[in-house]
Design a protein that fits this description.
This protein has 344 residues and is of the alpha+beta class. The protein has helices at residues 42-50, 96-100, 111-121, 138-150, 168-185, 196-202, 220-225, 230-235, and strands at 4-13, 16-26, 31-35, 57-62, 65-69, 72-73, 81-84, 156-160, 188-192, 205-210, 213-218, 240-247, 250-253, 256-259, 266-272, 277-281, 289-296, 301-308, 316-321, 331-336, 341-342.
C-alpha cells in the first residue's frame, strides 16, 4: 500500500533534462529522504509533488487520486500537501499565533484551541504565541513553520532542506523533534536534503537522484551497506574501495582475505565502510596493514590515513576512536569486521 506514487515522471527545461522517467512509491506514515548532488533534480521533484510545477510526462497520484498526468493536473492549493522551506517563510509582521493560524478557515470557531494544540504538538511554549518571528531562535521559527503546515491537516508533508540554516547541534535536535511530531501525527513526509547523514538518520526510505535519474531507493541501512555503484557508495559516506579477486565467499585484496556477501567470482571492486576497519599498532609490519602517514584528530572520532604495505594504492582513510590513537609513522595492522560489499 502506498500514499504517493510517481510513475515515469520526466521534466525538461530547454535542453536540460531535470528529471528522467523517475518512478517512486512512498508508503503511508513513512519518511522518505531524497538526496543527490547539486543539479540532480531534487528541487524539481519536490516542486512537481507540491504542484508548483507539472511534469512533461508521467503520472503522479496521492492516495489513489490522480494529481498530474503529464502537464495537466490539480493545482497546488487543492492537493492537501503541506510544505516547510529552509527559511520557514514566516510573515514578519504577524505574531506566532497569527502565523500558525494563517491557513485556517476564516472565522474558525476553534481557532484559539487549535493554535494551542499545534504549539503543544511542535513543543513550543504557549507564552510565545504573541511574539514576532524576529524574537524567536532559528529552531523556534522552524517549529512555527511546521505548526502552520500541520494546521492545514495535510496528507503529505514536504520538507525542503528545513534544517540547513541551523547550527549543527540544533539541526540534530530539530530533526529528531520533527520526526517525532510527524510520527505522532501519522503524517507521511518527504525530506529533500543535501546532507547525507541527515537523510540516513531521518528517513525510513532514501532515494538517490543523479542527473535527473533515480539511481537507487530503499532503506537507509540497505543503501549504506549495499549501494548500487561506487558513486552512490561515496555519496552516502566515506568508503574504502579496493580491487580484489573474489571466490567462494571471500575476496583477496590489499587487506588480506575478507569475507564478502556475494557469489561473484573473479576480478571485482569491493567496498568497506571505514568503521569496519580497526587500526592496531603492530611493529611486526603485517601484510594486512601498512604505515600511518597522517592522523586528523576529531574528538570522539578521528581519521587515520594508512599507506598499505607493498601496494600501489593511495592511502586509505579510516575512522577510529581517539582512544589508543596511533601516531604518524606507526606500523599498523588493519582488522576487518563484517563482510565487504561487492559491486556487480
Amino acid at each position: 500500500m502506498t500514499l504517493l506514487d510517481l510513475e515515469t515522471v520526466s521534466k525538461r527545461y530547454g535542453p536540460v533534462r531535470a528529471l528522467d522517467a523517475v518512478s517512486l512509491s512512498v508508503p503511508p506514515g513513512s519518511r522518505t529522504a531524497v538526496v543527490g548532488p547539486s543539479g540532480s533534480g531534487k528541487t524539481t521533484l519536490l516542486r512537481i509533488i507540491a504542484g508548483f510545477e507539472f511534469p512533461d510526462s508521467g503520472r503522479l497520484s496521492l492516495d489513489g487520486a490522480l494529481l498530474a498526468d503529464g502537464p495537466a493536473g490539480v493545482p497546488a492549493h487543492k492537493r492537501g500537501i503541506g510544505i516547510v522551506s529552509q527559511d520557514g517563510a514566516l510573515f514578519p509582521h504577524l505574531s506566532v499565533a497569527d502565523n500558525i493560524a494563517f491557513g485556517f478557515e476564516r472565522g474558525a470557531p476553534d481557532r484559539a484551541s487549535r493554535i494551542a494544540e499545534l504549539m503543544e504538538m511542535v513543543e513550543l511554549d504557549g507564552a510565545m504565541a504573541t511574539r514576532r518571528p524576529h524574537q524567536l531562535s532559528g529552531g523556534q521559527q522552524q517549529r512555527v513553520a511546521l505548526a502552520r503546515a500541520l494546521g492545514r491537516r495535510p496528507r503529505l508533508m514536504l520538507l525542503d532542506e528545513p534544517f540547513s540554516a541551523l547550527d549543527t547541534g540544533l539541526r540534530e535536535n530539530m530533526r529528531k523533534a520533527v520526526a517525532r511530531v510527524l510520527q505522532n501525527a501519522g503524517i507521511t513526509a518527504i525530506l529533500v536534503t543535501h546532507d547525507q547523514a541527515e537523510a540516513l538518520s531521518f528517513a525510513d526510505q532514501v532515494a538517490v537522484l543523479r542527473e535527473g535519474r533515480l539511481v537507487q531507493a530503499g532503506s537507509p541501512q540497505m543503501l549504506y551497506q549495499h549501494p548500487r555503484d561506487r558513486e552512490t557508495a561515496l555519496f552516502l559516506g566515506d568508503a574504502v574501495l579496493l580491487p580484489a579477486i573474489v571466490r567462494n565467499g571471500f575476496a583477496d585484496c590489499a587487506l588480506g582475505r575478507v569475507a564478502v556477501e556475494s557469489d561473484h567470482a573473479g576480478k571485482a571492486e569491493i567496498m568497506l565502510r571505514p568503521e569496519q576497519i580497526r587500526v592496531v599498532v603492530d611493529a611486526a609490519a603485517p601484510q594486512n596493514g601498512g604505515r600511518v602517514v597522517d592522523v586528523q584528530f576529531g574528538g570522539a572520532i578521528c581519521t587515520v590515513a594508512v599507506a598499505l604495505a607493498d601496494v600501489a594504492l593511495p592511502p586509505i582513510l579510516i575512522k577510529t576512536s581517539s582512544v589508543a590513537l596511533p601516531a604518524a609513522g606507526n606500523l599498523v595492522r588493519l582488522d576487518v569486521t563484517g563482510k565487504a560489499h561487492v559491486f556487480g
